Amino acid sequence: MDAFPPRNHTLHASILDTVGQTPSVLLPRLMAEKGSPARLALKLEFFNPGGSVKDRIGLAMVQDAEARGEIAPGRSVIVEPTSGNTGIALALVAAARGYRLIVVMPGGASVERRKMLRLLGATLELTPARRGMSGAIARAEDILARTPGAWMPRQFDNPANPDIHARTTAEEIWRDTGGEVDVIIGGLGTGGTLTGIARALKPRRPGLRVIGVEPAESAVLSGEEPGPHRIQGIGAGFRPAVLEQERLDAVLRVPEAEAFAAAREVARLDGVPVGISSGAVVAAMLRVGAEPAMAGKLVLGIAASFAERYLSTELFEGL
Question: Which pTM was predicted?
Fold first, then answer.
């Protein structure tokens, strides 16, 4: 039985029943503009009800904890540090299931993310932007220790994170491509998405390449020092526990400017409005797809979130 049942035209019992089963689309005009030898496609995770790929893990981590008896609606308080989208996913789940949620987020996160969290009823605390995710994690741990009945999903450490991607995201990709995908590219935030996908699909598809993307300005997974960057959602500044980097074939470094430019291009050319980290993924897809050996092969990227979540950021400057 699918963890996320196929959508139909009946009434759903809850907004949570609409998580998953996101579409994948080709990018014909981008391919033509760039002369790409490869076919390029994006899996549009912004079709999830909370607008991002993180809806999958927000729901999965809460369901897993409930099944273990660790939390229950009405008595437990969820506390989580996040750059935004996981917090929004947890806020969606918390509202639908009846939990109180406290989110700790670096101050550099977009205004849209902050307002969405408050709209969904979450309590939001901001930490200094210069301290990045590490600062948010430290503050969340302090809140956890001081709050009775508090529980932290720990998206960077929780095995339910890659597990749900192995069970759902990977299976959707396999179904939608008929098993004929050659390269899968995604941004590395927690690393759970690509870890789960690689775990599920590499044994079935010999030669499948799974490639991660991180900000060039904070290329920790490539052995460099952490630094500030504007690609929200990836580049946490440390190697997450759920990331099984040995399953990846490469980690590509994409500069901020390249990410912004690629996000604007895919919106203008194919009408696919993606966020900043998805722009970094598209930039990496164009690099890989330009390889002569990729002629006729399929490169699929994970579009983690929607452009409107970044209206107040540099993505929309000059527009």
Answer: 0.94
